[in-house]
Amino acid sequence: MSPPIAVVGGGSFGRSLARAACRVGQRVILWSRHEQRIDGAGETLVTTTQLSTLRQAELVFFAVPSPHVTALADELGRSLDGSHLLVHVSRGLLGPGLGTVSEVLGTRTPCRRVGALAGPLVAKNLAEGHPGGAIIGSAFPEVIEAVTDAIGGPRLRVYGTDDVVGVEVASALVGLVALALGYALRLGMEPGTLAVLATRGLAEATRVGEARGGSPRTFAGLAGAGDLIAAVAGDGRPEVEFGKALAEGLDLRAAAERAGAYVEGAALAASVAAFGRRFGIQVPLSLGIAKLMAGEIDAAQLAEALMARPAKRE
Amino acid sequence: MKLLPTRPLRLPRLRTYVPRPDDPKIFWFNSERADIVDEVVRRIMERYDGEESAELALNDAAYHEIMRLEADKSEGAKRKLDYWRGILRRVGRMSVEGKHETLREIALGMAKDVAGNFDPRVYHFASRFIPGVLTAAMNPSNILQNVLGSGGSTLDGLVTTEGPIDKIRNVCNRGTVVLVPTHSSNLDSIALGWVLFREGLSPVVYGAGKNLFTNPIISFFMHNLGAYRVDRRVKASLYKEILKAYSCVVLERGYHSLFFPGGTRSRSGALETHLKLGLAGTGVEAFARNRSRGIDRPVYFVPATINYALVLEAETLIEDYLKEEGRARYIIEDDEFSRIERWLTFFNKFRGLESVCVIRFGEPLDPFGNHVDEQGSSLAPDGRVIDPGTYVTRRGTPSVDARRDAAYTRALGKVIAEAYQRETVVMPTQLVAHVVFRRIARATPGLDLFARLRHRGIAIPVDELLQELGQTRDRLLALEAAGRVHVSNFVRRQPPSNILDGSLATWSGYHSARQVARVQNGSLIAEDPNLLLFYQNRLRPFATDIAGNDEADQAAAREIAGMEHRS
Q1: What b-and-e string marks burial along A111-146, b requiring 16 or more CB atoms within 10 Å of the CB?
Q2: Strand, coil or helix: what is A114?
Q3: CB pairs under 8 A between A and B
Q4: Does A133 touch chain B (CB under 8 A)?
Q5: Most exposed: A152, A181, B339, B391, by fewest CB within 10 Å?
Q6: Hey, is the C-beta of B385 within 8 angstroms of any chain A C-beta?
Q7: Distance (Å) of CA A82 to CA A79, B21, B422
Q8: d(CA A62, CA A80)
Q9: Is A28 in contact with A59 (CB distance < 8 Å)?
């Protein structure tokens, strides 16, 4: 019998991943800090508050908001060794150097076979089993294989790439673009405006990704364009809801509550802006979002600043 | 096989040395040599066991060899050219067995050409006399005494060793050590060889560019001290596979090895930051292969930095770096290393600076980048002992997987590059060059590297320079306290005026074509920005941390930090 799948994090995404794995016949152990009841939990899905229970798994999904990544990685690492495969689903990047979550996992735990799961994955769709796709980035073929076995199936096509950093940067920056799109939508901007925002946002993401060592091809795939199209099409993702709430004048906390999930926002935008300044990369959208969220400018000023930039060759 | 005709000399087999039980493993190397070559050929045949892959390998080898030999006008090249053209003509008509037989013949020839030799007699001779010869070069008036006896003690003072030597000795006894130092000079392997001997560490097997075998004396020592020949001109994939198989088999059998993972000497003088590891990567495969055969022989990577106050080939290297920017010559055969008078001047310059070469070993790592304890057990980040075998195991079964091991190797390259920074020892000449170059950058804001290097003769008042030297040194000491770098004792203890005088004295005379810098009317004149760039490049990763707080200094440091470099 194959070993169970472990999921670290009892938030909406963690629970959805656990469901998705159960659906394709896997046994799942879901860890969350606090005891929780999950509908449908039974023989194939058990919950725990002890990280050491996860030792028996081979594949461990890490669904933890980026502010908690480092501390929880340290804690989790004490129960794992080199045989575990560790895959995260975070949309965050860490610090002014835009460190990736997989880099943290690969240095703070004994696990080296790490990866990042991304693409047009939304907790609700994943839990309910709507047809869709995802991308797993890992330098290790066995990680790609294990993730495909764990959640892939007739309803979820899982693609693989070895461009981990590309997947992680794409996922994080598409989250930021989605936030800006939500904001613009609520302000009643026209489809043409949204298209410019989305496309130039993706171009910005690609520049940052290349500077971090990613491949531009990744940004044209599921992790970048695919993810962004789903956001524009209205897949109900938290980042868009968060942007809309901000546009309605809610403060950060109230907006986060409305979104119903942790959203990488102000800190990420500020980090990307600092990264751009340091390495001479144009990141007008991230810079604008950072200023907007810090209350330095309002939406009209942001739109004006973005539109006033000289148009260049694409 | 007439592929590579220049076979290095060996001593006659009279009075063969019989290894004693406490001799290092490498003393048995010659008795296993034929076995190793056979094993390499066996793996190559396994790798190309299909008809198509064998034909492809033959075609590829013939094509690349013909391309190479056509440019070579020697008589020997003509004969070999005929051989390869014959292969290319016949390969399409060969039977399956014929293809495999031809492949085996070529592989055997290549493997024999690569394979090294270790003659304990040469080792004992070299370890006794090389220090004397080197020291004699530094002190010619006492040549007889130096060569015959006490030369080592002077050399001891010139080449110092730092790092966890006892721990490295322990891991040498427990498993196979892969020594991966930075590479800035052809003297590196000689200095390392001497230091290993002095510290009671086992001699190592190492790959050396075939261009180093052109001098018969150097060739004799290299070949008989375990070096295997790597001919970088041979581009055939078959040859690369043979090199990989050879180093893997040697590591699997427990022979400690030395690789320069940067590939060639750092042209710019900078630390290597992007390591592909190349052949050193076979350490991961060797570990996995042993594990899947049930052999528990750990592999340890030991990073080391070799820090010179003066780099023998600095002028050629930086010139090559600047001349081609992207198309550097990969093999340089006519540099200072081949000119004995440069060696003499080089060693003569060392007297004022205490140690002129500091070799600093880093903490041993397992192939997966984990630290190990004193006994060589792998440690998780939380300090727990873990089994390195788990990294090559899936669901309880250890295996060999080329893609997986390549991913481990890439990750290890990053860890080693980080260790290089941490284990760098800042030498006085590097510090002086950096402070002066920062002044050049301040005087030329926003210029690209080449425009900046055309600014010769920038003058800096000596009293200002000494103050900046002192402040920069203090910031380096703070970085050292934070565990980010090391500084040499001379830099740590001497007043800035001695650091400046010592560095100028070291440069002047050795870099004789043009002065690096000179003092005139109370100012230091930066005469050769190229060499200043070369020496300061070692400090590039720390530029913004050791610059002053004023904006001009910080801006200059950012420009230095951002300078695009190939290593």
Answers
A1: bbbbbbbbbbbbbebbbebeebbbbbbbbbbbbbbb
A2: strand
A3: 60
A4: no
A5: B339
A6: no
A7: 11, 36, 25
A8: 13
A9: no
CATH of the domain at A102: 3.40.50.720
Per-residue pLDDT of B503-516, as tens digits, reads: 988 888 677 667 88
Q: Quick count: other Cβ atoms within 10 Å of Cβ A226?
A: 21
Name residue A97's amino acid. G
Structurally, how many domains does chain A consist of?
2
- Looking at residues A19-38, what average pLDDT do you find? 89
A297 in a structural domain: yes
Q: Return d(Cα B540, Cα A147) in angstroms, integer.
A: 41
Residues A24 and A101 occupy one common structural domain: yes
B89 membership: H or E segment, kind and range: helix B75-90
- Angle formed by the axes of helices B96-114 and B51-70, to 10°? 50
In a domain, A158, yes or no: yes
Q: What are phi and psi of B360, to 5 degrees?
A: -115, 120
Residue listed under structure tokens 């047809």? A131
A139 vs chain B: nearest CA distance in angstroms?
A: 6
Mutation site, B366, B387, B394, B415, interface A, largest A CB count within 10 A: B394
Which secondary-structure segment (H or E) carries B235?
none
* Phi, psi angles (nearest 5°) of residue B225: -110, 25
The C-alpha of B232 sits at a distance from chain A's nearest C-alpha, in angstroms, of: 28
CB contact under 8 A, B382 and A58: no
Looking at residue B219, its pLDDT comes to 66
Indicate the angle between helix axes A164-186 and A101-108, nearest 10 degrees: 140
pLDDT digits (tens, 9 = 90+) for B20-49: 777 777 777 778 888 999 999 999 999 999
Contact call for residues A197 and A177 (beta carbons, < 8 A) = yes
Phi-psi region of B10 (alpha: psi -120 to 50; beta: other; left: phi over 0): beta
Choose one of A163, A182, A205: the last residue of a domain. Answer: A163
Q: What is the pTM of this model?
A: 0.88
Instruction: Give ipTM to 2 decimals.
Output: 0.91
Neighbour count for residue B522 (Cβ, 10 Å): 9
Q: pLDDT of B379-402, one tens digit each?
A: 999 999 999 999 999 988 999 999
Indicate left, alpha or beta for B124 from its phi (over 0: left) and psi (-120 to 50: alpha): alpha
What is the amino acid identity at position A50?
Q
Asked, for residue A49, whether it belongs to a domain, the answer is: yes
Cβ count near B353 (within 10 Å): 24
Cβ–Cβ contact B390 with A under 8 A: yes
Amino acid at site B542: F
